[in-house]
Structures
1.
Amino acid sequence: MSIDLQQFHQVFFEESYEGLDAMEQALLAVSDQEEADPELINTIFRSAHSIKGGSATLGFPEIASFTHVLETLLDEVREGKRELTPEGVELFLQSCDAMRGMIACLENNTPIDTNESKPLLDAFEAMLANAPGADQGGAPEEGIAKAEDAVAQTFFGSDGGGEPPEDGPKQWKIIFKPEPQILLTGNEPIRIFRELEGLGELSVTAKTDEIPEFQQLTLDECFISWEILLTTESDKEEIESAFDWVLDECELSIEEVSSASASVSENAEQAPASAPVPTSAESENTAESAPAPETKPAPAPEAAAKPAPAKKPAAKASGGESAQSGATSIRVGIDKVDNLINLVGELVITQSMLSELGNNFDLEKLERLSHGLEQLKQNTRELQENVMRIRMLPISFAFNRFPRMIRDLSNKTGKKVELVLMGEHTELDKTVMEQIGDPLVHLVRNAVDHGLEMPDDRVAAGKDETGKIVLAAEHKGGNIVIEISDDGRGMDAEKILGKAREKGIVSAEQELSDQEIYELIFEPGFSTAAEVSDLSGRGVGMDVVRRNIKSLGGRIEIESEMGKGSCIRVHLPLTLAILDGQLVRVGNEVFIVPLVAIVESLQIKPDLVNRVSGNMELYRLREDNVPIIPIYREFNINADNTDLDNALLVVVEGEGSKIGLLVDDLLAQQQVVIKSLESNYRRVDGISGATILGDGSVALILDIPGLISSASQNRRRPQGVRAA
Amino acid sequence: MARILIVDDSASMRNMVAATLQSAGHQIKDAADGQQAFTIAKSDKFDAVVTDLNMPVMNGIDLTRNLRTLPSYKYTPILLLTTESSAEKKSTGKSAGATGWLVKPFNPEKLLATIKKVLG
């Protein structure tokens, strides 16, 4: 029999990561408490325990032995034998990282790097060597070593028993007198006999003299004792192991009688008399057919076990190298799945209703038809919403790492930091979540590193010495907005501008608003920390952050006030697969403008149009001058209306600036499914994707940020090079 | 072939035990903690129960104790699947009514042999 353990690896990895997250959170929570909550300790213990069990069974000895030591320590903590010191918490936290590293190695099929775990292992073993109580006089190190051996051994297939070293069969006399309640633990004596039978030749004699009168007989109790003769090559220990589970519920004696050769015949004589008496109502059937010496029901399973472990390393090396890296799974609440099933059920009902309607349709049924179609529309929309929800996870998945990170940062910098998380249940598409993780880490690090002041400086500025970082998420329209704010020193616009001029990012004569100055920190090669610290990196971060967020179709905003703090706001689409769009028509073409980008749509009043140099026209919208981008010119198509007078302008916003799109007509608003243009055709400037409309035609989705930045480039090159 | 209830909070452990037992033709149901298992057990009968010890909500020992109060589980073999081999744990398990124990990491052949043994 072979079971491919490989199939369980992915689940194990995911579960382990989850376990480590839970462990880390519990550790952080414990470290804040005066007296550790036993439930938290239990959670920590359970995580280590599960990882150990899984890794040992699946054959990851490095992780198994590491978690074994961890578990031993945690068990002592759990039982109250050992105190959980802050240093201990720190070590345990580091061990979470080490284990993550090791599991990641396994996941990528790279050899496990023990550089990180080895020192921790040594530290843990040193802790264990310092036995918590004097009563533990023995050498605990030995215990660990032994237990580790055991872990390694089992999974290399040795069954512990080993080969019987005996030179010949011996006969043993076993007297087995169970306590009356033995049946109540599900231990049928007959099973024990059957196991003994696997060891050699067996004869069993039941002693029934203690059975009470019928009236006093209770069904649940066992009053029989047995005398057993066993001829076997196994040693006493092996025989005893058959009684392992009942040792404390019986009187048992196992004695060697003689060497076997003489006893076989005697054995045979006794056999007929040896039918065991049924011990309970349930066992009656099995007992009758029980131990005849000829049958040997348990063919040694060890034989099959031997080749299996040898195969394993080979399979690991050759197979599944690429299989695991790409395949990720998602855990979905059963309620979401039930909802889907429910909705599909309704869809089926609607469908059957409609098809019946179509069977012999006449105009009288028109109302019912339109009613049915309405219902279909609603079903479809709900189904779509619910399918999308499957990919949604609460943002706490991304937020969870921050408490730990803040703690580490606070230790490293000496700043006191309080982290406040808000809106952790806000749901977000899994892909977006995965990609926003690193940028968020960077932003939070920056807030601590650059934003917050040292405790003394804070006190001097009249603030609480503990700085506050708030991480908040909320849904706004079709977007999720994540806000990272601190109550630190705020950004110094002049300093930033000075730096940017020094680095040549902006020219000396260029005048910039505060907002524009703040955004300079996202320029490649910009870093405000006078000295580069290992926290915020080397100025390669912020531009990457902005790029990542942009590539997700999001945007980033900064607000800051000197002395009061800064706030960075990241706007992200909830999902990358669906978009709420405004359909617009230009000539014969239909384009889609993402609804979130639209500020307003208006009819142009000719007197508000200002013509600036070249081809650029600006529209006066309250205080703003909005560049007018005629779509027909941008994509070189024929439009109905090339005259600005009374034309329609759709004002869109992105990255803090606005443009007006000149269109012929506004059509419907609808949700569209985004199809990648790149994977189906090629990248086109100004277009972010395509979709298929209800009539089957293809419509292009406008890339608003792209259009805005090309417009602003045009503005900087006032001669309108682009249009020429 | 028997019907066996597997109780473990770790999905990978559950899967492994289930796959092992299924490979021998057993029918499996599983539960992620003792409470779930107990609820299942109340309305269903199994030939054996294999349970982890350390679980949230209701641990393996409490589950065993509870199962033994159900008439239909009076004699059902209940095996504790655990990494803890300490004598103390075993005796608590025993006094709660467990039939025996299996030590994790389990070896599939050994697990099957043990199951075969208790099923009789």
2.
Amino acid sequence: MSRFRLRTGGRIDRDRPLRFTFDGREYQGYEGDTLASALLANGVHQVATSIKHGRPRGIMAAGVEEPNALVQIEKPFPEPMQTATTVRLADGLEATGLPGQGRLATDPDPARYDSMHAHCDVLVVGAGPAGLTAALTAARSGARVIVADADTEFGGGLLGTSERLDGAPADTWVRQAVAELDRYPEVRQLPGTTVFGHYENNYLVALEHRGEHAHTRQRVWRIRAREVVHATGSHERPLVFSGNDRPGILLAGAARTYLHRYGVVPGERVAVFTTDDSAYAAAVDLHDAGVEIAAVVDARGSVPPPWESLCTERGITLMPGSAVVTTSGRERIDQVRVAPWWQDEAAPGAEHTRIACDTLLVSGGWNPAVHLHSQARGGLCFSEDLGAFVPDGYPPSVRSAGSAAGEPTTDACLASGADAGARAAVACGLTAEPADLPRAGSVPVRSGRTVWMVPSPTDSTGDTQYVDLARDATVADVRRAIGAGMESVEHIKRYTTLSTAHDQGKTSGTLASGVITELLGRSTGEIGTTTFRAPYTPVAFAALAGRERGDLYDPVRVTSIHDWHVEQGAPFEDVGQWKRPWYYPRGDEDMEAAVLRECGAVRSGVGIQDVSTLGKIDVQGPDAAEFLDLVYTNKMSTLKVGRVRYGLMCHADGMVFDDGTVARVDEHRYLITTTSGGAAGVLQWLEDWLQTEWPHLRVHLTSVTEHWATIALAGPRSREVLSRVAPGMELDKDGFPFMSWKDGTVAGHGARVFRISFSGELAFEVSVPWWHGREVWEALVEAGEPLGITPYGTETMHVLRAEKGLPIVGQDTDGTVTPYDLGMGWAVSKKKDDFLGKRSFTRADTARTDRKQLVGLLPADPDLVLAEGAQVVEHPELPAPPVPMLGHVTSSYRSAVLERGFALALVEAGRDRIGDTVHATAGDRLVAATITDHVFYDKEGARRDG
Amino acid sequence: MAEITGESPLASRTELLAETSVPGSLDIGEIPFLTQVTLRVAPEGAAAARVADTLGAPLPGPGTSAVAGDLLVLWMGPDEWLVVGEQGRAPDVEEALHKALDGEHGAVVDVSGQRTVVEIAGPRSEEFLNKGCSLDLHPSSFGPGRCAQTLLARTEATLLRRHGATPVFWVLVRSSFARHLADWSADAAAEYGEGAVLA
């Protein structure tokens, strides 16, 4: 066992040694160690060099406030920027020290991360003395309690001291408290869990470390609490003096924690520099553990009597009215220089005493951990007594307890926790009994001397006086910021990068305010602190992403016929969250070949497409017709029962935002369809108008998108196919005319059949309830087999409709296109008094004749397929920029029936320019194309009846 | 009552859900083909009263459901309810509701195919659901009969706690999202499987 590891004591398991590697060297630690405690036990202080100045840096703290000891974990899994003080030691752990920045792993993280929502009456953050009494008091009242603590076990500060409660070691009481909490079914204990964010209405987010071998490595808890108790403890503050950054300089409380928690002493000859009482306990405890205490330097004028006698009886040298003014040492501190510095003197005296040591413990007082309190918009004020910012004013249902509220002793923490727990329970309407509290018998604490920095005789600028060790920000940097005219702590923070590292200034934040105070000659309360923001400690993105990755990244919507498409080997196109078959390749076909074949089949025979994804909305009520007249540009009230009409919807600005069909089911009932991607938006849009603008209209809207599976049959032989499975239905053009619908039986199931077409060909759309979708699809495919029925996907549908000049909203439109721009003035009623968008059509801008209009484009080279998005310009040679743009290509394909490439484009005054030659970008050249009408095929509509 | 043939939205996930279930801890399975009819009617009025007479139970208030004979009525909004029954009942239910409305303004729509029902039962069900749902499902806040429209696994869902000695929830999920929910469920429940001990 190393000379820095005690034979007994601490909460480590000496029967379970763990081997680990640091910076390539192998060491041994024990179960229960952190990487930092194991390194110190091996005499390793220096962990890394600093980010800007390249100075050696060591372990300074024992918890999340650590500014220096950054490591890169290499094994078990590479993780950057962990603090050695919070990494649990594991067998086989490999780590290296980091000079400020880490690197992400190149391999995917194999671990699992997930999240959980939770609710409680009382959330207690922190399970130290105050947190435990708060949780116990609330739990005894019957409250639903969650108590979370970042440490692996409950107890907080009690685990790192030699304190006794009711005459027994404090951990006996901790064990009893945990056991009691265990007995309440409505209490959830979350050890290893850091609450890192406190948001509005007591919504808090926490990260639970469940262990490297757990099913889930880390879990994010999203907690909604009626009442919150912050028992988050406090962080010891270092002191600013020349050379205050050398390895071997530790916070006094951290040294105490290493001793009592891990059985580790930080050195063999230890000096102590303090401005308050708490460091004396470290000196006494380390002395009793066999460490030589070189001296205790106290900036206050005298040593409090209880500590004076405890030190004197141990022969510890006391140096009140003094300060450490500088240190020396190469890779580790080897000497401190102490000078007299009485409280009323501006600077220490010139006489120095040199004291040899291998460790210096510092304590500049304690900062309550007010981070979450402050995130919750709790107020802060500067307490001159504590020399720290303390909670001052609580938001509703939030309170702090224990040292987080500035309580100085264990007894006070126990009492304030119990009180906060009781008040939280009462706020939830429960009855809380006065708690029976253990007694620590804490000695009274005397006020500290508020010291921010010790003036140095050798470094008047402050280049070696570090305020933020993580950022290498010094007193000199603060001086420069102030010299540049800055006074606000927020500005100086950003100028110097103070408190912006991984630790978010846990040791440096208040210190920075103090240093600014001194340099500006103001009060600290006036200077204030920078804003506390989530996360309290760093959180991996993997944890925040949780299970929402890979296949679960976003919900995937499928139709009832999906598996059939998969079986056919169809690639899928994403349309909103829907997966739609894109095309159905046969043999070695590429997409172009498959699409040409599919298009040919629809034009000459029959094709079948799954169009279940189209949005469908049932519109019912006596005012349904009036309502639809208001939301569509064309007139729907004149539609006869049994008939179908194409409809366009515009926003109030007159721009097209969705289209679809409207079928009149009966006098007061319509069934409308929307685009696949637009369904939810259209329903919301319609509800919005109905509920807020036209509440007098008696209309109800119901989404029925997924009630129906819908199958399109298109092509001159579609009637023949349908007749084979719908023998009872009259299908000829007089009995079942274009743009009408009827109910009937298809493949043995009740179906609603529409005669509508998106390809210009004779076509039917068959709707059946979801669960018959696949069966009816297969029946149609089987019936069509002798006729060569061909399944087609979205790509073929796009080509076929483009040949007919039919726009796709969202592809050929972009929110700046009116129905007139699309050449669809025929779909805008001239007879209606009003409809959404109508007034905008009288605006000068929408009436301009040089607006971009939808036209056809035929490239001069018939083999060429223009790129969608290609810019359209006038001339074959580009003039000097800025080049006037005429418009752009919106849709472009190769056509089977036209036997060439063709495109739709939005072109300025395009309809007046039919026959003109313009030019389009194609890679790095310009190619000629002729403007044509946007309908390329069957202009006269001869094909729709078959 | 017509037996519905065909393929329910989770037919392809029957085995997966069975494998996902952990006896005594968590049971997940689809209840396919249930009749679901949307009813829209003003809550205070003669038509609502006639509907209540027809159903044999008053229309339930916000966040609750009601048992009406062999039908279940879920509150979906200030003037919207979902009537749920055994498969094949849609035509009867529609007809009865239309008759009760008696020409007064309202709406009755068969939406049986729009959603399917996933039953989640067992002592782990609250915790399991809370992996993907932010509602407080504790019995003191979401007791038997309570229902809510919410998000589960980022999917629109209607959640209902059924009556029973052990926790039983129904999740009404849109048919197109059902597989996503099933796949999410298998992933979320994995930790309760093999070797997992019920705490």
